[in-house]
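Can anyone check this?
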Amino acid sequence: MRKKLLACAPSSAAIVALALLLATTALGQPKTSVSRTQCKQWDDAFLTIFNWAMAGALIGACVFSLLSGFLGKFLWVFTTPRFRLVVVTLVCLLAMVFGVALGPWTLGLGGGLFSGVDPRYFDCASMQFGAEGLFAGQLGVGVPAIAQTPAMIIALSAAALIGGLTAWLISSATLRFLGVPAKVRGERL
């Protein structure tokens, strides 16, 4: 009797291992298929986040670059206006690119910033559901926004760089008309 139990042990262990493997595979799959309506809702939610990120990159890089003058009181490296503008612009650029464009892969969907986007949104990349595309259909019509990561990175980078360039132009104009050289030129010696 003992020999029969020992002979059955390897095959029963294999059956249990196979059952556990199949159970974990079955539990990891979504219970229902993704509908086109759900994909459209998730795509619209993700596009809303992207559009706000574009505005945030542009305005944030400009405003934070102009307001970063107080950093010169703490670190002598930030006393140079151009260096300060470049650093703040790059920080805004990296925050938006890693937070929004690469966010679904680094932060995940379904929580935090992406709470309105279900984790099953990745399954919509291979579906035709009438995706709007980036920039109100100007780029990638019919392609889900999640599948346009390179275009989102380029767009967010351009927005941050335009914001930084705008801050540099404002800073240069302000320095020229209101700064020390303008005051020295106005004095009579």
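Reply from J.R.: I decoded it. DSSP finds six helices and no strands in the chain.
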